[in-house]
Structures are given as structure tokens and as C-alpha cells.
């Protein structure tokens, strides 16, 4: 969910409103977030304007400025809503079979990153973050680090279960799982397929096993 | 060296010129490449103009257009000249100690990527490539793939020497070495230090060893 400081997300903070006004407000919020995702995928981050988001969402520009300080804030809320709900809260399944669990979640991530409606806006944001250190900090804190954290938790649980050697640096292991994926994606050094992520999981785990 | 199709690189193709004209031409070429590297680090890829490169290099705009079709072509030649000479031709040392050799070359790469005069223009080009699929292809072919190829060669030689298990996919192993580095760098998920690359080499090699 968007943080209270950057979006009108929490109905409980709006109890003074009538139910109808709250519903309208929530509808506008969703329309703005959806419009920002669509548009950034179409025109890129640099050319995205609050005016265009307002027009696409069918709201006034001031409505957006009342709730968010910048286009970056709108977009980060849009992604946080999508990604948080889909992935972070659930975490990675823990069936006890680490290899199967990692393969499953990485296959789902491949599907997500090969879906243009997700990929185009996410690339626009990642490109903007790579170019701009300030934006990058927010992008990291709100999207990438929580994303990496679910892998850290799953690998740590496997380490506690004795499936990963005690001396392994779990943070580094997560980077070995996600870095090659991110490089193929962002720098287009290879194709994102289930075969790739399956093989990656196997090779990474080979180095983590107790000796 | 720049390819013959995109730059006035090969003196042997210019034998009809007087020696003085060839020297002037080579001086202009170097000035243009240097200016393009400096400027892209200062203003980013999108705001880089041929006019500004010409002004900084002290040549006419038409001199640049005579030799290169676009600013991307100038920049790619600039990087290819710097990076090829420094790294690709030499390859990775092969002392027989794979771990030491990889650590040495990755430490040198950390030093390069923490040097602003290299990092800023390289980031500008990487960001532009992440945003633009066409540019990305050239960036990949002329810079990233040759860079990955030197690792492939070194790992393959270790595999032939029996230091890496026979069933290891060397291409994937290279991605496990370079992906985490590239992610820390481009997406700023961590600091590039010698300690990081040393630990990365150790953990990757742990998974590659014959069993």
C-alpha cells in the first residue's frame, strides 16, 4: 500500500467524509495510478507529465498535486500497490523444497517481466533511477529492497534448516540469483525464460550447499 | 579500435593523404572522442549534441558528421577505443590460479567503475541503452559482449584444466559473476568494493568446482 505521506490511501484517515466521497476518492486514486503506469510505458519517464496523467485519469491536475508531490511519487505508489500486493506480502512459498520454491517464484517473475503492461512502465522507472541518484534511492527503498528481502527471508529459513551452509553470506547469494536476471532484463544481455531461471537457481544452489 | 565503417580510424585507408594531413585527422578524431566522453558524463546522453561535441573538440560540426552517422556512433567509438585497448585485447590473466586471476580483474573493474571520468559517460550510455532497444544492440555487440567474452575464455580454459566441473554452463557462470556487479552499479543496490568482488568470486567458484 502507498505510504500515508504520499497518497490518499487509507480510508480510515478519511472518516470525516461521507461513504460516497470516500468511494469517489478511491476511484480517482486508482484511475490516477493506472493512468501513470500506462503512460510511462508509452512515453517514458522523462516525457511523462502530470497533465497527461490527469487527462487520462479524467481528474483535474490539482487533484494529483494535492495527493502527490511529483510524478515520481505517483509512479512509485502505482508500482508499490501492484507489486506489494502481488509479491511482497505473500513472500516466497516455503514448501521445504528450496529449489522448487525459488524456481516457481522466478518463473512467475519471468512471466511478469515479459508482460509489456508491467515491463514497459517498470523499465521506464528503472531507467530513470539508473540516471538519477535521488529517484534511485526511493525506487530502491520502496521496490527493489523489499523485493530482495523476500528472497533473503526464504534463503535464511533454508540456512536455518541446514540446507544452506552456515558460512554463506545470504545477501550475496540473493545478488547471485537476482543480478543475472536483472542484467538480462535491463541491459538485454539475454532472453528471460523459465529455462534460464531454472538453470540459474540450480547453479546458485550448487554453491550454497553444505560441504 | 573503431570499426572501419564508423570512424576514420585506419591510417592505411588514407594513404593518399600527406603525413601531416593524416596526423591532423587523427588529432581531430581523438579530440572528438575525448570531447564526447567528457560531455556525455556532464549532461547525459539525451542532452548530448553533436554541436557541443564539435565546439569542445574545436572542430566543425561537418567534420563529425563526415565520420560518424550519429552521436551514438561517436560514443560507441569513444568507449571501444578506451575499453578495447585497456581490457579486451589483453584478456584475463591466466596464471593457473583462477580465483586470483578473477579477483584481480574484478578489482581493477571496481577501480574503473568508481572513477567518475569513466563511470559517468559509461552510465549515460548504459542508461540510454536500457531505454532504447536499437542503441542497446550496438552497445551490447561492441562493448558488453566482448567484455563478457574475456571471462568466458578464462573460465573455459579453467574448465579444460579440470578446475571447473565439466557440466557447468560457462555462459551462465559468467552471468553470475557479472550480473551482481552490474546490478550494484547500474541499479545502485550496493557499493562496489574489492571486498564485494572478492567474496563474489569465492562464492561463484564454490558452485563451479568439480564434485
From TrEMBL, chains A, B:
DNA-binding region: 49-68
Compositionally biased intervals (Basic and acidic residues): 12-28
Top-level taxon in the UniProt lineage: Bacteria
Gene3D superfamilies listed in its UniProt record: Homeodomain-like, Tetracycline Repressor, domain 2
InterPro entries: Homeodomain-like_sf (IPR009057), HTH-type_TetR-like_transc_reg (IPR050109), HTH_TetR (IPR001647), Tet_transcr_reg_TetR-rel_C_sf (IPR036271), TetR_C (IPR011075)
Pfam families: TetR_C_11 (PF16859), TetR_N (PF00440)
SUPFAM superfamilies in the record: Homeodomain-like, Tetracyclin repressor-like, C-terminal domain
Region (Disordered): 1-28
Keyword match Heme: no
Low complexity biased stretches: 1-11
Keywords: DNA-binding, Transcription, Transcription regulation
Domain HTH tetR-type residue range list: 26-86
Full protein name: TetR/AcrR family transcriptional regulator
UniProt organism field: Streptomyces ovatisporus
Species lineage: Bacteria, Bacillati, Actinomycetota, Actinomycetes, Kitasatosporales
